[in-house]
Structure formats: C-alpha cells, structure tokens
C-alpha cells in the first residue's frame, strides 16, 4: 500500500468479529497472557501504565514475562527512537527490529509500545504489515467454446467443461476453502462447426476480491477497521502536538494458524533467490509495520518501520545469536524450528503460501 493511498484509508477504531476456530492450546496447559491492550491515552487495560516518552519510539514490554527486545535494525541495544524534525527538511527515519522467541509469538501474541513526545506530531498515522497469500491476477478477456452440429462441446479455451476458468480463481477447485483472486471481465464466444460462425454468447466478471487473498497483522489487529470490500485501513490519530502513547496487543496466532508468518515479517533475501518472498510482491503488500509522524499539512516529519523476527531457540535469543537454527532437541528429538517463518514457508521467490499459514 503506497503512502499516496493512505488518505483514502484513514479510520477510527472499531472491533471486527472473527469466527471461532479450534483451540490450538491442547498440550500447552496453563493460564496465559494478562490483558495489556492500550487505550491510546497512556494507560493500558488492566492497569498497565504506558508513560509518555521523550522521543518518537517503539519499545518492548518490560512489565510482564513476555520475552522480546526492540532495537534499531542491526544494532541490538540501540533503542528504536527518533526525534522528528520541525519541518520536512529535518525528516528522520529508522528501521527497527522486534525480536521474539517463536512460541511467545505463536502462543501469546504480539505486543509492543509506541510513544510520541509533546510537540512532535500534528498527526500520527500507522499501518500494519500485510502480504499476498494467494496470487492475485487478471483473468483472460475471452472464453472460446467450439460446438458441433448437435451443440456438443468439442473444444474450449479458458474454460473447463464449458465453464469459464481463470487460474487465479482458487475456489474453482478448492470451494469454500480457497478464495477467488481473479480480477477483470470476459466475453464468451461460441464457434459453431456446422455453420462456421462465431457468436458472442455471454460474458461477465471473474468475480475475484483481492482483500480475500491477503493476510497478515493488518487483518489480525483487534482494532482493525475494514473497507467495504475488505481492506484494512490505515489509522490516523489527531494529536496537534499533544503527547501520545499506546500499547499494541495482537492475539495469539495459535487459535487460527500453524506458522508465525502473520506477524513475523522478517526475511533474508538469500533465502529467496536474492529477492523477496512472493507474498511481498503483491500490489497491496505492506512490508513493514509503519508509523508516520506528520505536520498539519501532511508533510512527513518522521517515520519508524518495524520488522518482527521470530527465534527458534531461547539460548540463541538470549545470546543474540542465530534466529534460524535447525536440527532437533537433544533428548526429546523434537524440531528446534517449531514454527515456520518466511524462510521455511516459501523458500525461493515464486512460492505463494496460500493456505499453508
């Protein structure tokens, strides 16, 4: 989603009801997770105080047992924070990384704090990461059927069994378990072998809906607001120089998914043929968690881009070592890499994750 689209997608906060899914937690007994959702005013639910800060920054939680660290990308120990300029000439930007052990992310959710100091921003705009899970594309513009003198189908093009077919309509075979991602319109031409004539016999739209083919934190946000066709909207907070703080709290992934890719947007280009995962190439993909500081005339004063990286071993996380270790645990024989990220889920640059999430 490009910045130029953001004014069309600003919204206030509301809740989106989601269908109940099978409980993931069988085998992981115990109470989980205090209520720590922020209310945008410095105090989180459950009495958690989120103080106003002196910088425009993103911070890991320090008030309960959730394991995470948030820092400038490539500089562990350096805070993810900037001082926005007083005008566009003072624009400041930082790339940041939130490190989380894989089961904390999968079984507890995603949590972090944002602070905006007094006098920094007239408007705060934020948008969460999302990706194209199923490839979206435009279908053919013509469907051709050939019939004999009895009206029996002899051959066809862009059709199966006489029904128009688009490769991006995954519901054609998958039914309710797969979306229709085919866009555009088509005409049906029928060639009659007996008369030698071709006639226009119908047509229509392929009927795909691109938002149905996307996934990611923008859709999982408990405060998500969706447009009429299903796109998550960017959020705008009108500050006019007032300080602001908020705790972001996303539910556990384990209720709905098998992997961590809905929150963990980190990838290494070396794992994707020197490029990016296919899901990041979609026209509406948002590669990072974006936090933008504007003045009243919508000039950009500061920007933070956050990447979430999940870790396969706690000992590696503790020592800031290798997040992607492979192999098995020495006694149990279970995998060290229990939950897939982009490296495992879609190796190379042409694989779409589809329902492998």
Structure report:
- Helices cover 6% and strands 29% of the residues.
- The N terminus is likely disordered.
- A hairpin with a 4-residue loop joins strand 14 and strand 15.
- Strands 2-4-20-19-6-17 form a six-stranded mixed β-sheet. Strands 3-1-5-18 form a four-stranded antiparallel β-sheet. A four-stranded mixed β-sheet has the order 10-9-14-15, with no helix packed on it.
- The longest helix is centred in the first third of the chain and has 6 residues.
- It has five helices and 20 strands.
- By secondary structure, it is mostly beta strands.
Keywords:
6% helix; disordered N terminus; single chain; 5 helices; mainly beta
Strand segment count: 20
Q: For the residues shown, what is the average pLDDT? A: 87
Biggest sheet character: 6 strands, mixed
Query: What's the SSE pattern?
Result: EEEEHEEEEEEEEHEEEEHEEEEHH
- The helix fraction, in percent, is under 10%
The geometry reads as globular
The proportion of residues in beta strands is 25-35%
**How much is the radius of gyration in Å?**
24 Å
Low-confidence stretches: 1-47
In DSSP terms (H or I, runs of 4 or more residues), the helix count works out at 5
Ends distance: 21 Å
Q: Please state how the strands of the largest beta sheet are arranged side by side.
A: 2-4-20-19-6-17
Helix-strand category: mainly beta
């Amino acid at each position: 989603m490009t910045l130029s689209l953001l004014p069309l997608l600003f919204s206030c906060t509301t809740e989106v009801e989601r269908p109940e899914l099978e409980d993931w937690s069988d085998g992981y007994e115990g109470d989980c997770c205090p209520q720590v959702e922020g209310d945008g005013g410095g105090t989180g639910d459950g009495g958690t105080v989120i103080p106003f800060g002196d910088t425009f920054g993103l911070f890991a939680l320090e008030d309960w047992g959730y394991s995470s660290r948030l820092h400038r990308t490539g500089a562990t120990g350096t805070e993810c924070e900037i001082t926005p300029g007083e005008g566009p000439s003072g624009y400041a930007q930082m790339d940041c990384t939130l490190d989380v052990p894989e089961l904390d992310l999968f079984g507890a959710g995603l949590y972090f704090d944002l602070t905006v100091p007094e006098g920094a921003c007239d408007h705060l705009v934020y948008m969460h990461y999302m990706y194209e899970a199923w490839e979206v594309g435009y279908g053919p513009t013509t469907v051709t059927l050939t019939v004999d003198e009895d009206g029996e189908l002899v051959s066809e093009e862009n059709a199966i069994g006489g029904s128009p077919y688009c490769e991006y309509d995954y519901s054609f075979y998958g039914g309710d378990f797969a979306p229709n991602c085919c866009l555009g319109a088509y005409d049906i031409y029928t060639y009659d072998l007996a008369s030698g004539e071709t006639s226009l016999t119908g047509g229509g739209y392929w009927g795909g809906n691109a938002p149905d083919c996307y996934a990611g934190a923008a859709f999982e946000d408990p405060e998500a607001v969706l447009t009429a066709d299903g796109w998550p909207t960017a959020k705008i907070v009108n500050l006019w120089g007032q300080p602001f703080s908020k705790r972001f709290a996303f539910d556990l992934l384990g209720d709905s998914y098998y992997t961590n890719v809905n929150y963990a947007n980190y990838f290494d280009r070396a794992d994707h043929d020197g490029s990016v995962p296919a899901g990041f190439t979609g026209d509406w993909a948002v590669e990072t968690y974006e936090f933008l500081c504007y003045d009243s005339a919508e000039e950009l004063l500061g920007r933070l881009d956050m990447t979430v990286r999940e870790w396969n071993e706690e000992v590696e996380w503790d020592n800031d070592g290798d997040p992607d270790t492979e192999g098995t645990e020495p006694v149990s024989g279970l995998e060290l890499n229990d939950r897939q990220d982009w490296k495992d889920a879609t190796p190379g640059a042409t694989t779409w994750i589809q329902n492998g999430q």
